[in-house]
UniProtKB/TrEMBL annotation:
HTH gntR-type domain segment(s): 12-80
Annotated GO MF terms: DNA binding; DNA-binding transcription factor activity
Organism domain of life: Bacteria
Organism in which the protein naturally occurs: Umezawaea tangerina
Keyword Chaperone carried by entry: no
KW Plastid (keyword) present: no
Keywords: DNA-binding, Transcription, Transcription regulation
Protein name: GntR family transcriptional regulator
Pfam family, one: GntR
């Protein structure tokens, strides 16, 4: 089951944070087709957002074909985003945890780590200007 976290300081609307967390759980294999998501009431109680925010996130994911609302039963995962073997993802995640621990020990804060990872991810996308 997914435990939603809302960062009020992020600048990203809460419904997009919820949707992003579901997508991440799908990519990482933590959620699989057939899994039931927390009820709107449960998400409201644990995250502090209002019911309309949760419904908006769930509807967006439903429109994307990832979730399915079943009247009286709840909201269920309909499709997945992960295409990599879960064992490979677990192994890479463990290496990343070690790397993040090393970065923090070196004095980097989360924003520094985000910037560093972002620079590596976009490295191949940069166009050199003469």
């Amino acid at each position: 089951m997914v435990e939603f976290r809302i960062d009020k300081a992020s600048g990203l609307p809460a419904y997009l944070q919820l949707a992003r967390q579901v997508r991440e759980a799908l990519r990482l294999g933590w959620l699989k087709p057939g899994d039931r998501l927390p009820t709107v009431r449960d998400v409201v109680a644990t995250s502090g957002v209002n019911a309309n925010t949760v419904l908006k996130a769930y509807r967006e994911l439903e429109r994307a074909g990832l979730l399915e609302a079943r009247q009286g039963s709840g909201t269920f995962v309909k499709a997945t985003l992960g295409s990599v073997d879960p064992e490979v993802m677990d192994r890479l995640r463990a290496k990343l945890v070690d790397w993040v621990d090393e970065a923090r020990a070196a004095g980097l804060e989360n924003e520094d780590i985000d910037a560093l990872v972002g620079s590596v991810l976009t490295e191949g996308e940069r166009i050199e200007v003469p």
